[in-house]
Amino acid sequence: MNPYWSRIVGDLAPYTPGEQPKLDRLIKLNTNENPYPPAPGVVAAIQEELGAAGDSLRRYPDPEGGALKAAIAHHYRQFGIAREQVFLGNGSDEVLAHVFCALLKHGRPLLFPDITYSFYPAYCKLYGIAFERVPLADDFSLRIDDYLERDSAQIGGIIFPNPNAPTGRALALDAIRALLRAHPRHMVVIDEAYVDFGAESALVLVREHANLLVTQTFSKSRSLAGLRVGFAIGQPELITGLERVKNSFNSYPLDHLAQVGAIAALSDNAYFERTRAAVMQSREELARQLAALGFGVIPSAANFILVRHPEFDAAVLAQHLRELHIIVRHFRQPRINDYLRISIGTPEECAALAAALQYFVSQSNKKEPAP
Among 252, 249, 216, 214, which residue's Cα sits nearest to residue 233? Predict the structure, then answer.
C-alpha cells in the first residue's frame, strides 16, 4: 500500500461500473442506457442556453437547483410533492452517497439484498457503516417477511432498488407500505432508478411516512446518462439533512446545462411515455425469444433482463457475443455467475442479439454426439 494513502484507501472495494468498450459497430447492451435519444427539446434547450458565445458557462450554476426542484415537484404534484422535498445530485449515485452518510449511519447494520446494486457495500465501507445482506428467494424475489420479522432495535435501516438490480424483479407497493409500518423509526430508502419501466413508485407513500426516502434518476427512462442528474424525494426534514451533508462537500452539485436539460426532459411527457413503452415492448419480445431458445428469464420490470441457459456457461456466451461486437454484462459473483444481464436496446439491436444466441445454440446442438 502506498505510504501516502489514508488507511481507509486500502480497505475499500470500489464499485466496478459497466465496461465502456471502444469497438466499431458496437451493440452495447451492458450498462442499461436508454436505446433512444433524449427528448428533442433537451438538445434544443441546451443549445439555446449556450447561445452563440456560451456566456452562461462562465458563471456558477444555481447551487440550490431551484428551477429543477420546482419542475420535479410539479411533475409529481399528484403525490403532493413540494419543492422543499426534493434533493439533487450528480446522478442517483451521488445522491445515494449523501444518503448513506446523512441518513444510514446509525451504528447498527443496514439491511439490503444479497443480490443487488453493488454500490451499496462500497458506500458502507467508505462511510464505516455495518451492513447485512439478506438473501433473496430462490426465484430472486425479495421476501418482505425477512425484513418485517427483524427486531427494529437490531437494525440501522433498509435500502433496496425497486425494481431490484441486476435481477429486475419488483416489489409491490403494499409490501413497501408494510415495511414502513413495521419499522417506523428506521430509514427505508427505495432506489427507483428503473421504476418507470414497469414498477409501482413509492412516491405515493412519502406524505404518510417520515422515514421514507425515494431516489430516482434521469439516466435511464429520460435518456440523460451523459448529464448525470439524480434526485431524492422525502419529507423536508430528511432533505435538510441531505443538504447539510451535500453543502459540506460541494455546494454546486449539478452543472448549469444538466439542470437545463433535465427541466426540458420533464416537459415532454408524450416522448417519455412513447419511448418507455417501446423499451418495455422490446423487453417482452426479447424475453419471449430467449425463452424459446431454452433460456431461463427472470421476470423484469426494468430496462434489462437477467437470463441463463442451463446448457451453456454464461462467460462463454458473453465471449461469443463480444466476438460479434455485442456487449452484455456478466457478473462473476455468487448465485448469478451463470447469468447474463442484458440491457434492452432498439428492436434492431435486440433482434441481432437474439439471432447471435440462436446461432450459438443451434451450432452447439449440432456438435452433440449421437446417443
Answer: 214
What percent helix, strand, coil does the chain show, rounded to 5? 45, 15, 45
pLDDT in tens, 148-171: 999 988 999 999 999 999 999 999
Helices (H), the chain: 7-11, 40-50, 66-75, 91-103, 119-127, 145-148, 173-182, 236-249, 256-267, 269-292, 314-323, 347-366
Rounded mean pLDDT, 341-368: 91
pTM score: 0.93
- Which residues on adjacent β-strands are paired with residue 88? 231
Do residues 301 and 170 lie in contact, with contact meaning Cβ atoms separated by under 8 Å?
yes
- Architecture per CATH, domain 40-268, reads as 3-Layer(aba) Sandwich (3.40)
pLDDT score recorded for residue 370:
46
- For domain 7-37+270-366, give the CATH superfamily: Aspartate Aminotransferase, domain 1 (3.90.1150.10)
pLDDT of 369 over the 60 cut: no
* Beta-bridge mates of residue 330: 340
